[in-house]
Amino acid sequence: MPSVPARARLGPRRRSCGVGGLVVALVAGAAILAASSSALARHPEQPETAPRPGNDLTFLDHRGPGPFWYGAEINAIFQSHPSFRAPYSGPNSLRPGAEWALSWLVTAFGTYTPTRTTELILDPEIALGGGLSQAVGAAGFPNLDVVRNPTLSHAPYVARVEVHQIIPLSSDWVPNEDRGPISSLALVPRHRLELRFGKMSTADLFDVNPVGSDSHLQFMNWTVDNNGAYDYAADTRGYTWAFVAEYQGPRLEVRLGEMLMPKVANGIDLDWDVTASRADNLEVEIKYAVADDWRGTLRVLGYQNHANMGSYREAVAAFAASPAATLPDVTTTRRAGRVKRGFGVNVVQELGGAVRAFGRFGWSGGQFESFAFTEVENTLALGADLAGAAWRRPTDRVGLAFVSNGLSAAHAAYLSAGGRGFLLGDGGLTYGRETIVEHYYNLHVWRGLFFAEDVQLLTHPGYNVDRGPVWVFSLRGHIEI
Fold first, then answer.
1. Residue 27 confidence class, pLDDT cut points 50, 70, 90
2. Which is more confidently placed, 220 or 62?
3. Alpha-carbon distance 310 to 55, whole Å?
4. Neighbour count for residue 226 (Cβ, 10 Å)
5. Residues 6+ apart with CB under 8 A from 22
6. Is the peptide bond before 469 cis (omega within 30 degrees of 0)?
7. Domains of the chain (ranges plus CATH)?
8. Cβ atoms within 10 Å of 285's Cβ, excluding its own
9. CA-CA to 79 of 20 to 30 Å: which in 14, 262, 450, 474?
């Protein structure tokens, strides 16, 4: 899965009377070090009023002149779990015996700004190692970095190649608060249109949250860092080709994205027939502030996926009607032109400066098969992070989050009958909501070097009351260059 550049914003610092009651509170936890990926170069004609990057959080000083910027990050995650109760297992089960896994994700970032409003992005990447149980067995899998198909090549690949064009809608240019690998311009118009075309991650731009979106400096679980019910368009590695248009202003943002879907569920090949296969995404973002250090952002997302999807109900019915069938198979019921819809709500709220709370709610139609992200039809996530200033470690973060994931009745019946998705399939199922609690502490060691410990408790992994609970223990090393 792709690393996610720091893009998430909180609301403006000036007082607003609009949406002040949106406070999602939970226990203090952990967060994003936005400055670690926001250190970028400025174009020669840009004045010294450009924002100063956090060079004490990277190994390279990216403030030098010139239209080029380059950097890299290395993320390594070691995970293990002890043995747990499992009366039965299937081919897509989290293995009940004790096991460990190590994953590596190395991404290089490069941008070129030929003009004040144009940016070209090229990011090569390499993914090594793997996840626990070959990255199956839990809808909220504990490591967002792992590739969901262990047979893929470990050779380097192009993660992002984009053209990013800004169209000014005002003459007032301000420091770029989103400065990072996918937006390296130091100054931007206060009101503007942003157009992007190329290969990217949908999660770079949609459903971003400054407390829970970055597996390199924050939480690691799939459904903490993303809305589990958001079946966002992506190939197996987490990328797609897309066109995205955004309006960005100080209080309101609106973005529309058209993405390619994979040809098959969890597939590496994308379908270029956009008349029958595509993803439509629309997100509205409202930024507000009830006072200084009490800023917040509310994002509301809607999406619909057009793809060659199978039907869980049809698969179960065909299995019941065929005495010769051994298992229901949703792939045999695929039909082009089917549409899956869903929505999500994403909120983050500062609570006086040191603490930030966040929440996500998501729902998607459960008639057709999960296709691109994970097997979740409804989800609720709550969490918070706390900066370490109170114990004289201001660049450390500690975080805590809770997630509850659920399935549609049709999806649960399919798994109960022995069916398999691309992630789940124990050979049977006693359905219960999959719940996850995750804690981490991210330690800033020196400049761009970070270490973290992380503990996750998965109850009813894969929605199966008969299996688990599972404790997952993690250590992470991160280098920001």
1. very low
2. 220
3. 49
4. 33
5. 288, 296, 298, 347, 349
6. yes
7. 34-480 (2.40.160.10)
8. 24
9. 262
Q: How many helices (H) does the chain have, and how many strands (E)?
A: 3, 18
pLDDT tens digits for range 290-302: 888 899 999 999 9
Tokens 């770079």, located at residue: 204
Q: How far apart are CA 310 and CA 363, in angstroms?
A: 19
Q: Are 97 and 89 in contact (CB under 8 A)?
A: no
Residues 422, 214, 449, 436: what is their CA dihedral angle, to the nearest 10 degrees?
Answer: -70
- Note the pLDDT tens digit of each residue in 222-237: 999 999 999 999 999 9
Q: Which amino acid is at 411?
A: H
Closest alpha carbon to 346 in 256, 229, 242, 176: 229
Is residue 148's pLDDT more than 70? yes
Q: Which two tokens stand for residue 343?
A: 């929505």
* Residue % of the chain over a pLDDT of 90: 79
DSSP-derived secondary structure letter, 450? E
Tell which residue, 107, 77, 4, 181, has the closest CA to residue 442. Answer: 77
Structure tokens at 132: 């626990």
Sign of CA dihedral 386, 392, 396, 398: negative
- Is the four-CA dihedral 96, 238, 341, 338 of positive or negative sign? negative
| Top-confidence residue, 279 or 14 | 279
Coil, strand, or helix at residue 77? strand
